[in-house]
Structure to design on (300 residues):
């Protein structure tokens, strides 16, 4: 599997559930979620990112690029350079007949959804049959994104790691924990991911990036919650967003409190984690940190 595909796998809160706009906007006019965190004399910048993009995303807005220039370390969800992707695929990404996670075990609704799609893209369907459904969904979405002109090569976190290679990189999670998370969903939830990847309209696929680039945090929160099941089914929200927000907030506080980690840090996590009333931002404030929204307040 190509490296770019593994990069998308690392972006849990966008896997099989989100989409990107083809609207071209100058990066300098963008206002993605961006904050400064101050805690016990240390500081960090926090950027809500997306994990797939285009060349015209860069350079990022001046305020963000300036903050990057001050950073003494880069903090990401997962540094895939530290992961054994092949081993993780073997352990968590394969079809499993005993759990109803193989091609022959698809439910009627999934078969009906996939049949017309596979008739038009037989080579794609053939290539994903050996994968667990969550990984099938990831691949299907990646193909749709690529067709819209977007690539994980231009994902914000991967671009920052590449462009600032001299900075130490810290991760808030591990690749294995993210693979474990997706593999933990039962067959019904995983096949639902596949159906969503095929049936979501282009209009819905194009909504998230417009909200991200304009800094519409309320819209970002609404999109994430709706695409992860909404109020009627909170399992995915709980596992993919809310629980992990605690892990990320705790990790940021730990890094900022470490005498071995220089300040300021530049933290980049999926935008879904920094919006809403259960976000990393809210958790950092509850832990006693001062968090400033840099598009509305003065950030140093």
């Amino acid at each position: 599997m190509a490296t770019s595909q593994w990069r998308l796998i690392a972006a849990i809160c966008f896997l099989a559930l989100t989409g990107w706009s083809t609207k071209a906007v100058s990066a300098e006019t963008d206002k993605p979620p961006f904050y400064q965190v101050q805690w016990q004399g240390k500081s960090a910048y926090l950027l809500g990112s997306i994990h797939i993009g285009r060349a015209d995303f860069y350079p990022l807005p001046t305020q963000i690029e300036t903050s990057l220039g001050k950073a003494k370390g880069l903090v990401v969800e997962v540094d895939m350079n530290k992961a054994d992707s092949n081993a993780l695929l073997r352990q968590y990404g394969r079809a499993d007949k005993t759990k109803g996670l193989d091609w022959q075990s698809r439910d009627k609704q999934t078969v009906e959804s996939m049949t017309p799609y596979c008739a038009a893209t037989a080579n794609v369907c053939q290539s994903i049959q050996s994968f667990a459904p969550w990984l099938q969904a990831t691949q299907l979405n990646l193909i749709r994104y690529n067709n819209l002109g977007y690539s994980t090569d231009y994902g914000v976190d991967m671009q920052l790691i590449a462009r600032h290679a001299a900075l130490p990189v810290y991760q808030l999670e591990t690749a294995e924990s993210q693979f474990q998370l997706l593999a933990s969903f039962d067959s019904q939830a995983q096949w639902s991911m596949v159906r969503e990847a095929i049936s979501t309209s282009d209009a819905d696929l194009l909504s998230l990036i417009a909200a991200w680039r304009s800094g519409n945090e309320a819209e970002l929160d609404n999109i994430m919650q709706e695409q992860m099941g909404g109020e009627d089914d909170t399992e995915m929200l709980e596992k993919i967003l809310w629980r992990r927000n605690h892990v990320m907030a705790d990790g940021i506080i730990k890094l900022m409190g470490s005498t071995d980690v220089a300040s300021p840090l530049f933290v980049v996590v999926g935008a879904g984690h920094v919006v809403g009333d259960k976000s990393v931002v809210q958790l950092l404030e509850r832990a006693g940190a001062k968090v400033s929204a840099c598009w509305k307040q003065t950030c140093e």
About this structure: Residues 238 and 290 are 25 Å apart (CA to CA). The two ends are 42 Å apart (CA to CA). The chain has a mean pLDDT of 87. The beta strands are 34-39, 42-49, 73-76, 169-171, 265-270, 290-293.
